[in-house]
Amino acid sequence: MDGSVLLGEQEELARPILLTSRTERFITDSDKEIGVVENNATRTAAGRVEPAQDQVPASDPSDPVAKEECMVDVVFPGRVTKEGCCRFVCEILKCVLYQRQQLPMTYDQLVYHQKQQQAEEIVAWRPLRAAGEWDWRKCHRTLQAVEEVLTHLEILFSLSLVPRVLLMLGGSVLLPKELYELNMEDVSLGTGDCSLRTSVCLRQLFRALFVADILPDARPVRLMTTTVMALAHRDCGVTGFCPKMNFRVPVRVKKQVIRLSCDRSVARAMLEHPSDWADYVWFQAPVNIKGFCK
Amino acid sequence: MELVEDCGGTSALAVHVEVLVKPRSTASKTDVRMHVVAFLDHHRVITGNHRWTEFDEQFLRQNVDSVAIADPERGTIDLKGCNLTVHIFTLNNDGLSTLNLEEDEELSAANHWLLPAAEFQGIWESLVFEDGVKTQLLDYVSTTIFFSDKNVNSNLITWNRVVLLHGPPGNGKTSLCKALAQKLSIRLSDRYTYSQFVEINSHSLFSKWFSESGKLVTKMFQKIQQLIDDEDALVFVLVDEVESLTAARNASHAGTEPSDAIRVVNSVLTQLDQIKRHPNVVILTTSNLTEKIDLAFLDRADIKQKIGPPSTEGIFNIYMSCLGELMKCQIISPRQQLLTLHELETISFMESNVSQMSLIPSSCFISRKSKGLSGRSLRRLPFLAHALFVKVVVLEPLSNNLPPAATLSPSSDITFFCSLDSNCHAGKVSGGSGQSSRQRARGQSKDGQLCMRHSATL
């Protein structure tokens, strides 16, 4: 995946601010190629792509299918890159933060707004804080935390294979209020040339997520702290993430699992996975993300 | 220390070895255990309270913070003839999280720690009690677990998992609860994958709505129940100042207590009976006012331990640990060796260059003057002494890590205790006499011998 495409996608995710429905927002960029999934989608008059009524595409019965209430299976029709996996995790983290009302708008929009606001402050020579306005200091703190976690995730992914990532909202590490797991144990990794484009995979992933509706936002949610945990090799030498040797995935909380995998018939992994994950231990992100609202 | 039967039928002493692993270490427990056992093989006879923090081996240097044999009740231990039980643990630096009963409730109903917590480390060692109180409590919890393991019928033999510590304030009841939980979480780490400590804020369970308080108590216990349901977790529940939740119900006969308070007590009692069925919970309670506690609750407490002011030996140990800390932080310099009471006894309290420093707290003047003070007051004395009589502190900027400007010579530290003890009663320093004593102390702090004479005249 080349760098220019990734930059372009950042803007794409930040752009659709005017849409009313949160669900629609992430599928509006599917105006180019989207492969298997797009065949089952219907294009509206406004040029947006609505999800198909039947959730399972005819050509690929396992993509995307929600096996049970809290499980979303996404099968990519080919190999993906290591950087791509990191990207999936980062985008899902941003999406969970927004959908679960920990951020008032998407992360990328917030960053954009914050930059604008800072520019205005410089021109006006005084802080523009008025009644009803945002507390930009809090906003800045939250954004900084998210950015730090994203950076550390990138470093972790560059150092080790990361088969599982947990996003825990609220409560404690043992008993969080909400628990999201990204399982990438069955992902076949490849190099840039012979792998799927990350943007294509991202669209497929988010389509599956919104069709399965695992991130409902109908009920108001209070602000919580988000903790990110990742499974990585014990000797990977990461410095940012902190090892949690005694950590066990909470079992008494309803867990939403997003399982990413690659179609084995199409993609044989270039990098073989270990048969057991015994040498993989949980690492906790060095900062927790505190929710922010206006 | 306990007796266990080994396979040959003879008994061997079981020694607990606590291995604190560095927070950033990713070594597996098996590897750590192997290296620690190999390390201990090189040592034969050690004192009962020994801690290693420096290691020759690369693996231990990288992964282990300290290896400690925490058994102060035995003088020396011959490791060869002992059964070593190695407990490997890492400290949790997460700090406390809060448990809320209502979604929109701002006030938290309980504080929650994941054990072993970094905040609680070292409390156990700092607490000084006589008569083996600490060991008794450890044995009590072991027995509750042992009985549960053996499926003893709780209708025939009753145990309620409730411990009540009572006594005057400032003697370490709450600290003992925290330390006990920490110690057990380390000792039982092979059995329970993690331990939790829940401190209930009693006052948050009283509602402004009539008859709502009892329900809040039930809700609180339901939350705790959620934690207990996980059989891999050992849960400690601390109810500090328990008399606020279990006020004697007969007080309401006089009409001074609303019936809502009675409901709270009833709720606590019934919930305790519910919770005691689970093998992985211990309820620790503390109180200053035992006469105000409901009899039904007192009856449910398996152990009612009085924690009184420290004995002379306790006072010596407290002062000694204070001196050690002041030397460690370079407030008193240069650092000198401190002897334990046992070591002083062996040299029959002879004054020499080595024992001079250690003899200060054990002098009968200080012991006599300090008798009756609470542990908290005793530990405050060095601070007050510095604040009131030294007063030459130049605060460095935060980024600067230079040693503090005001350092005392060891001999002048004698004035810390002498001057304060002459002025304070029950931890309070009176202003008027403090002034004159301060002048005296200033004049004499140049020479330790003078101070000793000063104390003798007092």
What would you say this structure looks like, in words?
The complex is a heterodimer of chains A (294) and B (458). Chain A is an alpha+beta fold. Helix content of chain A is 31%, strand content 19%. Chain A has six helices and eleven strands. Chain A has helices spanning 3-14, 22-25, 82-99, 107-124, 136-159, 198-212; strands at 42-43, 49-50, 65-68, 71-76, 164-169, 178-186, 225-233, 242-243, 255-262, 280-284, 289-290. In chain A, helix 3 runs antiparallel to helix 5 and helix 4 (107-124) packs across helix 5 (136-159). The relative contact order of chain A is 0.20. Mean pLDDT of chain A is 74; it is low at 1-68. Chain B has 458 residues and is α/β, with parallel strands linked by helices. Chain B has three domains: 2-89, Vcp-like ATPase, Chain A, domain 2 (Roll), CATH 3.10.330; 97-306, 3-Layer(aba) Sandwich (Rossmann fold); 312-457, no CATH class. Chain B has 16 helices and 16 strands. In chain B, strand 1 and strand 2 form a beta hairpin. In chain B, helix 4 crosses helix 5 (173-187) and helix 9 packs across helix 13. Chain B is globular and about 65 Å long. The model of chain B is unreliable at 1-10, 411-415 and 418-458 (pLDDT under 50). At the A-B interface, strand 8 of A face helix 6 of B.
Describe the structure using short key phrases.
heterodimer, A: 294 residues, alpha+beta, Cell Cycle, Spindle Assembly Checkpoint Protein, Chain A, two-stranded antiparallel ribbon, 19% strand, B: 458 residues, Vcp-like ATPase, Chain A, domain 2, Rossmann fold, seven-stranded mixed beta sheet, five-stranded mixed beta sheet, disordered N terminus
